[in-house]
Input
Amino acid sequence: MISPDLAIKILLLVPSVIFFFYSAVYLMLFELNVQPKLNRFYRNTSLVLAGGGILLLAIYLMI
Output
């Protein structure tokens, strides 16, 4: 049986890695200027996802 502490750590670490991955994808779309109309969306979304990943990672490191 998996301990609750380990389960919580896994549930925090996996989404933070996913958030960082998608943040990098949106940042690349912003930097490459793929669709100029969506440039602002790409930048804002990458910042929000990176912030969420940092928040989840900080909680993970506190536990």
Residues 4-62 form one domain. Residues 4 and 10 are 10 Å apart (CA to CA). The mean pLDDT is 95. The chain is about 85% helix and 0% strand.
